[in-house]
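Re: the request from the purification team.
They wanted to know what the chain is likely to look like in 3D before they choose a buffer screen. I agreed to run a prediction and write the result into the notebook, where they can find it.
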Amino acid sequence: MSALPDRLLLQPFTRPVRGEVAPPGSKSLTNRALLLAALCPQPVTLTEALYSEDSLIMVEALRRLGFTIGENSGARTLRVSGPANGIRAERAELHVGLAGTAARFLTAFCAAAPRGVYRLDGTPRMRERPMRGVIEALRTLGADIRCPGIEGRLPIEVHARGLRGGAADIDASESSQFLSALLMVAPLASGPVELRTVGELRLPFVELTARLMEQFGQPPVARPSPDRFRVEAPRPYSLDRDCFPIEPDASAASYLLALPLVAGGELLLNGVAPTGRSLQGDIRFAEVLRECGLIVAGHPRGLVARWERRSVRRGVTQDFARFSDTFLTLAAISPLLTGPTRIAGIAHTRKQETDRVAGAAAELRKLGQHVVETEDALEIHPRPLTPGVEIETYGDHRFAMSFGILGCHDLHGDGRPWLAIRNPGCCAKTFPAFFDLLARLRAASH
């Protein structure tokens, strides 16, 4: 992987894309599977695991908690082993960076330990991101969690004494990771746990968590009613094999699926399962691209995306509440679509790595687009693209990659670069080789 400059001038594709790619492993699955593997009595090897900032933050935190994790980045494996009774370290300082999964999951994991004092902190932006929902629910279940700064925000101190089980309300409207964190540690409680959700809940990642727990030996999470989740406890985790494969990341696949719509041509995404077979809700973005005019079809080795230059790229109206990590991909390529594009269900993304709604509106306006912004939606009316623009990424990997795909469009028709990305290296959070991969595809398409 080559080092990226502070400002990357994007080279357009002058010919239709051709070839095949393997998206990196799923961040959501890797970080969940790392935690669940740590709770298994035997060593577990994660294959096709994601090697990125977020996953390596989780790896380092687990090591500080007393687990052994062997890395083989070339083979994309992580081998997890540790004490059969859970966390060994009785004190640890855990730095979660800007990784929301690590922050929420590790808070719950540490709270479920029988003893120990654990301090969690992150970047200045992570200190602004919500934590209150998971903290308050854990306290209801018997956890001692202290906030030395702002209540409900990092940094926090967990004075572990185990979880007693019982019932708790959890407001997961700001992040479904709150509920996922509680579900994964619920089997460690001294008695059954029932969680009642308050406010709007985005289910796909919660469903992913529940299905993953089943694969690690737990019975299905019961749903006594749509807003209630019941987990039997205490019940140990186990895996009936020593390896667990990680699916390719559906969110990362969204950029590559969109590339033929921008550059023309055909691309095979190895290992990417279609809707209905993938654990990940973000694969539904493929259906959005079909509405835009892209042909997306199953293949024995994955998914094929194809677009012919004579076809029409259509603007669409879509609610992204169930797969919001992909909305920036559509927003970034919307100037190339015919007719307006309306993207709804995205208010909660204002509290992610940055305010993604406001950021998307600002960058699209710099590109000459007419954008109507509301709290929960963006409506983009295509206008001629303004060349010479530098896209601000706000330190957010999804801005870098989404607008990186737009920059593959041959605006001038002669291959001249017209779009630059600031801080492209922020894509290391989930897809470190993204721009190298684009360069290889561009070279292979000539």
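For the purification team: Residues 27-225 form a domain with the UDP-n-acetylglucosamine1-carboxyvinyl-transferase; Chain fold (CATH 3.65.10.10).
Please add any questions underneath this entry.
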